[in-house]
Write a structure and sequence with these properties.
Length: 119
């Protein structure tokens, strides 16, 4: 298996995804195997950060004391340009179908992907 790229889950301002070398399946969550065919060597790539909003959920009630300061906030499902879907934070006022681009912000002390409308 190839060496893992550093991404936002490890504190770097980047989103990574994998592409199966056998079947071409694109997957977002890091795995040691392809979720479609089981091949053992998917390759990691950095995403462009571009995508389109698939779903939006406005969170109006804090789940933890650390998130209370952020309420209300949007949680999105974003169809990324590279062919995978991911959950992330985003601007209030985003709607299904909006073109978005990722940046990174602190949320409850952790760096997270944050999408805003493309200009």
């Amino acid at each position: 298996m190839s060496e893992r790229l550093t991404d936002w889950t490890l504190g770097e301002q980047a989103i990574t995804f994998q592409v199966c070398t056998s079947c071409g399946h694109v997957q977002y969550f890091h795995r040691a195997f392809c979720a479609a065919c089981g091949a053992s060597d998917p390759r990691e790539h950095r995403a462009s950060g571009k995508g389109r909003v698939y779903a939006v959920s406005l969170v109006c009630r804090a789940a933890t004391p650390e998130t209370r300061a952020h309420v209300p906030y949007n949680i999105l499902l974003v169809d990324c340009a590279e062919g995978f879907r991911m959950m992330a934070h985003g601007d209030n006022g985003l709607a299904i179908g909006d073109s978005v681009v990722a940046s990174f912000r602190l949320f409850a002390g952790k760096l997270v992907p944050y999408f805003a409308k493309s200009k």
